[in-house]
Specification:
The protein is an all-alpha fold. The protein is built from six helices and no strands. Helix 1 packs antiparallel against helix 2, helix 1 packs antiparallel against helix 4 and helix 3 packs antiparallel against helix 6.
């Protein structure tokens, strides 16, 4: 395979990654509409999210086969090899993000409304916006191979963790004030935890960009 053809194949792989990322971004946006009562037909919106998750699964399989075929045929080395390995890892992270986004939407379908939850929901919306931006930025960093942008995503993961802890404390306070809200508060805790995991996956993708550009694995480093 010529260098030009190999570069074209890598470009196609990046396009598939971009398609998967676009699905995840939409799923998070639609899940937000369900949680914060911004849709008059939550059941239909949930079905759309499920369809996007199926699309992501299909793209994951397609992209995985494509990557392993390139590895077998081309036997790439150095940065080309790191690129394919990073695409494989990012493929897995995006599929996991899709699963988490669907689970977030599931938890948001039957939430009760109560004035006591106002502060918690405000914090949760802040967290969802923050995580959504991390997803957009990590994908931009990956597509553009932008190490600086990737490192900024990694830094932002700390704020995501802090927001989750703040939400959990707020929800604990709500339960102490009104025990009838236990089920709703537990569902919202679940949403916050899964959002945090989406942020972790975005961080993983950003770390792959650093690996791609430097050859250094910075996972699990402070």
């Amino acid at each position: 395979m010529s260098v030009k053809l190999f570069d074209e194949r890598l470009s196609e792989l990046k396009s598939l990654i971009a398609s998967m990322g676009g699905c995840v971004e939409q799923m998070l946006k639609e899940a937000s509409m369900i949680i914060f009562q911004k849709s008059s037909n939550k059941d239909r919106l949930y079905q759309i999210i499920k369809e996007r998750e199926i699309e992501i699964d299909s793209l994951q399989v397609k992209l995985g086969k494509y990557c392993f075929r390139l590895l077998a045929v081309q036997s790439p080395v150095a940065k080309d090899l790191r690129m394919i390995l990073s695409i494989i890892a990012t493929n897995t992270s995006l599929e996991r993000m899709g699963d988490l986004s669907l689970s977030i939407a599931e938890r948001g379908k039957n939430l009760k409304e109560d004035p006591l939850l106002e502060t918690s929901l405000h914090c949760l919306e802040e967290m969802l916006i923050h995580i959504s931006l991390m997803v957009v930025d990590c994908l931009d960093a990956f597509i553009n191979e932008d190490e600086n942008q990737a490192r900024q995503v990694i830094i932002q993961d700390k704020k995501a963790d802090d927001l989750k802890e703040k939400i959990c404390l707020e929800l604990k306070s709500c339960i102490l004030k009104n025990s009838d809200l236990i089920d709703t508060c537990l569902q919202l805790v679940g949403v916050a935890e899964k959002l945090e995991r989406v942020g972790d996956q975005a961080t993983n993708i950003a770390e792959e960009v650093v690996f791609l550009q430097t050859g250094r694995d910075i996972k699990h480093q402070k």
